[in-house]
Each structure stands twice: as structure tokens, then as C-alpha cells.
Amino acid sequence: MAQLTLFDSNDTVLVDDRRGRISYTRNFFDSATSEAWFIELRHQIDWHAERRMMYDREVDVPRLMASVRLDEPQAPLPGAIQEAARRVIERLDVPFNAVGLNLYRDGRDSVAPHNDHLDEIREGFPIALVSLGATRRMTIRAKEPPKRVMHVDLDSGSLFVMDYATQLHYTHGVPKTTAPVGERISLAFRLKRPREAAGIYR
């Protein structure tokens, strides 16, 4: 089983083949900006807990969550979200219209291996993930042989980009860890379908 762990590359393409493209850019935002945005979002976002069905029972989602639409905001957006969105949209030339936020409070918070719900996002457009706060490791696994596994430490201020095709061929997740780790906020930028088409608003 092939395995790749990345720590020190500043702008790295992890995958670029028929199964899609995944890239990681360290220090996309400088440390002072990342720290200021973390503080702003930690205190200004209305974080909430969710429960979901898993294996025929309802369980707590092991992190706090929030979501906003950039195209139809329900309230004034924090400056951190506006500026992060501007920079990411400018870098990738993608008109992202939604941001999903996750707050990992410690090593017990996580997200299970998954791929995005393709019925909610526009076909052909990537997903971009900005990390703020403590570094957490993301694990990416190929669904079919060769069963490649990649571990990427998502540093504060980094930009992680997965194109649409990767959601068909890879899963990604942030596993729990017993190591001491501080709080982390992630901002997942997506181009979502209109509410009427997707039947959702988040």
C-alpha cells in the first residue's frame, strides 16, 4: 500500500491524474492574519452541535459546525470570511458561494472518512479548504486499487484543494488523536447548486 506524508513542501500537488487533482499550499495566508481570523471566527460565529444517524442510531457529530452562503448571506459576514473568500476565489478563479465551518475543540473532535455530497455541489468545480489554528492531520484514501494513502498536516493559513473528480475516487477525513492539540477552525469553500435544485440551504 503506497503512503505519502507531506510536511515541508510549500506548494505541492499530491495527485494529478485521471482520478482527479489534489493540491496543498502552506502559508497561503501569513501567520498574523491566520491568528487574527481564528480569534475573530472563534468568537463571532454561532457554533452549534449536530446529531446524525449512524449505524441505526443517532450520535453526536464530534465537532462544532456552522455554514453561510456568500451569495445570499442571512446576516453580515465576518470580515475574516469575506477576505478569505476573496483571496481563495481570486487564486482559484472559482465563484464559490458557500462556506462550511468546523471547529475542532481538541483531539477528540474529528471527521470520519467521506466524500462530499455531489448532489449539493456544482459538477466540475473544486472544494477549497482553509485551516486556522492548531495543525491537524488529514488522511486521504483511494477507493479503488492502487489503494494509495496520503497523510497531510494541515497547518494554520494553508489552502487544500480537491477537484470534483477526487470526490468520486478518494475519501478524506480528520482522525481523532491522543496527542495534545489546540483548537482548529476549517473553512470549506464550495460552489453549491441553487437551493431549489439541491433541496437544501446551508
Look at the helices and sheets and give the structural class: alpha+beta
Q: What is the number of independent domains?
A: 1
Low-confidence spans: 1-8, 196-202
The fraction of residues in strands falls at 35-45%
Q: What's the gyration radius in Å?
A: 16 Å
Distance between the termini: 37 Å
At CATH level 3, the topology is: Jelly Rolls
Compute the number of helices: 4
- CATH level 1 class label: Mainly Beta
Largest sheet: 7 strands, antiparallel
Kindly state the percentage of residues in helix: 10-25%
Could you name the CATH homologous superfamily?
Alpha-ketoglutarate-dependent dioxygenase AlkB-like
Q: Give the total of beta strands.
A: 14
Task: Give the neighbour order of strands across the main sheet.
Answer: 2-3-12-9-14-7-6
H/E element sequence: EEEHEEEHEEEEEEHEEH
Q: Mind telling me which CATH architecture this is?
A: Sandwich
Mean pLDDT: 89
Q: What is the general shape?
A: globular
Structure description:
- This protein is of the alpha+beta class and 202 residues long.
- 18% of the residues lie in helices and 39% in strands.
- The strands form 3 sheets. A 7-stranded antiparallel beta sheet has the order 2-3-12-9-14-7-6.
- It is globular.
- The model is unreliable at 1-8 and 196-202 (pLDDT under 50).
List keywords for this structure.
202 residues, alpha+beta, Jelly Rolls, 4 helices, disordered N terminus, disordered C terminus
Question: What is this entry, summarized?
Answer:
This protein is an alpha+beta fold and 202 residues long. It is built from four helices and 14 strands. The protein has a seven-stranded antiparallel β-sheet. Strands 1-11-10-13-8 form a five-stranded mixed β-sheet. It has a two-stranded antiparallel sheet with strand order 4-5.
